[in-house]
């Protein structure tokens, strides 16, 4: 320390907590910038539509309401979920349930692939009943395991990141093979502009800041000449420290040469 953490997100949907909120954050710089063609394509827009939208942004630098309402379906080319240990997943659910909210119809619609048998109304009703106890508003439904194909369970809960936005957490657990992953979806479509957040990490308090990295965000640490490819790590709601730990884990997984021979004793 100190080092700089940069989170750069074409969807505008990432966030670093300001421990002093609502007072301005002197160690954290946020910039918004216009999305270009490549950014739209990266978010999953087909080429012609990406061209139109980038052009649209350039010509009319203002609210993109019509576009925004249709966006949710485009973001999805990148890996959205992130593999987790039991402890990581429990920490995430604790964080989420601390700010649990009643799902809005919009949030339920945003959840996208949740086409399990219940209607939107039934889901909301269940949550209204449990309003006094946020943990009870967690919904559970069966889904096939990524790893072994047997049936595991997704727990879904609605939450909000303070001073940011509503999120939907999908935490998957397979009782057969123990595989876990979590996926976080943001409510409210993409931001009006892309967003880059630059934080100077200079204390333990900075390491403990909450970070939300959406699936389209990449992050970098210039002091370490480190650049994480966008989309290579899914959506994460953690702390600066948690993000670094995930980064180290990912580097070890993807770079077997860095582990030495003794690490591969299968
Ligand atoms: Zn499994």
TrEMBL record:
<keyword id="KW-0479">Metal-binding</keyword>
<dbReference type="GO" id="GO:0008270">
    <property type="term" value="F:zinc ion binding"/>
</dbReference>
<dbReference type="Pfam" id="PF03367">
    <property type="entry name" value="Zn_ribbon_ZPR1"/>
</dbReference>
<keyword id="KW-0862">Zinc</keyword>
<comment type="similarity">
    <text>Belongs to the ZPR1 family.</text>
</comment>
<dbReference type="Pfam" id="PF22794">
    <property type="entry name" value="jr-ZPR1"/>
</dbReference>
<dbReference type="InterPro" id="IPR042452">
    <property type="entry name" value="ZPR1_Znf1/2"/>
</dbReference>
<dbReference type="InterPro" id="IPR042451">
    <property type="entry name" value="ZPR1_A/B_dom"/>
</dbReference>
<dbReference type="GO" id="GO:0005634">
    <property type="term" value="C:nucleus"/>
</dbReference>
<dbReference type="InterPro" id="IPR004457">
    <property type="entry name" value="Znf_ZPR1"/>
</dbReference>
<keyword id="KW-0863">Zinc-finger</keyword>
<dbReference type="InterPro" id="IPR056180">
    <property type="entry name" value="ZPR1_jr_dom"/>
</dbReference>
<feature type="domain" description="Zinc finger ZPR1-type">
    <location>
        <begin position="143"/>
        <end position="265"/>
    </location>
</feature>
<protein>
    <recommendedName>
        <fullName>Zinc finger ZPR1-type domain-containing protein</fullName>
    </recommendedName>
</protein>
<dbReference type="InterPro" id="IPR040141">
    <property type="entry name" value="ZPR1"/>
</dbReference>
